[in-house]
Amino acid sequence: MVSVVRVVKKPLLSGWALLSIALWWVEGCAPSSEEAQDRHKMDTVYAVPWEQVEAYMKAAPSPVQVALWLRQEKVPFMRKALHDPTLAGKYAGLQGAANLGIYLTDMAYAHATENYQDAYEYLSSVNRLAARYGVDDILSVDRIRLLDKLQDQPDSAQKLLSQYYGELQERLEEMGQQAMLRHMILGGWIESLHIALVLVEHDSSKQQVAQLISLQKSLLPLIKKLYAVDSASYAASRQILTYLGELETAFQDVKVEAAPAATAVDNKGVIQMRFRETQSLSPKQVSAIKAPLQKLRQFVIQS
Amino acid sequence: MRKSFVAVSLLLAGIRWLCAQTSCKQLVPTCKEAYMENFSWDGRYWRAELYGGETTEIYYTFFPGLRYRLIPCGSSSTKATPHLRIYNANRTLLLDTRQQGERRYWDLELSSTQLLVIELYYPSGEGCAALLIGHRASMEASTR
Questions:
Q1: Each residue's pLDDT tens digit, A68-104
Q2: What CATH number does the domain containing B66 carry?
Q3: Residue of B24, B63, B116 to mutate when probing chain A, most A C-beta within 10 A
Q4: What ipTM was predicted for this assembly?
Q5: Do B114 and A215 touch (CB under 8 A)?
Q6: How far is B57 from chain A (nearest CA, A)?
Q7: CA torsion angle for B83, B88, B92, B93 (degrees, to 10)?
Q8: pTM, whole model, 2 decimals?
Q9: What is the domain count for chain B?
Q10: Domain that includes residue B98, residue range
Q11: Helix, coil or strand: residue A138
């Protein structure tokens, strides 16, 4: 299976590499005014003090973190539920950043479920969008080749993906692209929740996936704060905030039982935390959460 | 004379600020190298300058079946190491590592998926502090 995938991928890789070089050359010679705006002006309008939002920005689990855990849970791959990778070229600005987060999540999910051909398609979309913001070197052809070589070693590949995601965040922080980073995180969060809902709909016995969905009730107020800070000056943030409010309403009936049953620390410094069993999500609750999430996701991915 | 004094003071303050920023930035790679061992880093870190008893909060989702390594790093002006207070999503204090002695890192396992709030603080003094979180399959999960 792996060798078949490799045979299919070699010409794809070469083609993609050529396309990337061609795109890079074209962009390097004549960046469009839209892209110039993406790179230099975006955050001067919408930026808010970093310390106000930094804690909230890192509250949502990263795409790599979710993917690692989905791999642990041995969930199936549901390609139909994912975003269309061919639309990557149609996005720009903050919407492009949100879609970068979506594609990163889809890529990590495909990779975690060992669907390397699909992961590769999403990686191409990620790279295409990353090029718009001058961070495509983090997911360069050489690095993709390195990732490609590690197909048989998912742990090593996961480590590399984590490293690339960390570098992406750090670079955006250093470049002062805070609004872009915020939207990338929002996109990743929306897609993670979307995938989790689809998985629970498909197999309601996945209790830990259901628990992950329930916990988003506690995260939602923090995600809302990310958008409340600039909703006065940015119409898209206002709209996102409205959808997040609807999502919060849908979560009202969900019980988040986080009462610890026991916490113990052994002499090696290993902390064991046991929690009481939580109430499972009902299909009605899943549908209630899915409706406003779909509206929000649609708002972000519409091209 | 006064102008020279102001210029030198500004220069020294600038150098001190730059050194503090550099050493703060250096914390993360140094701690990662020293204590992450065979854990995978998820690519994120938290870093803050803590003054006058300030704390910084970290929200993190932990999954069952994984062992997490929490690495609080830094050293305050009084050479104190940073500690962690761990709360659940409802803000109930679950653990204060200060009550468990001094360690360079803490490993953590949970029985179910949880969003925990981790407060990073110095028991005394001030300075830059950072938190790194790594993960790997837990012993229990790997023998399943």
A1: 778 888 899 999 999 999 999 999 988 999 999 999 9
A2: 2.60.120.380
A3: B63
A4: 0.81
A5: yes
A6: 7
A7: -20
A8: 0.79
A9: 1
A10: 2-142
A11: helix
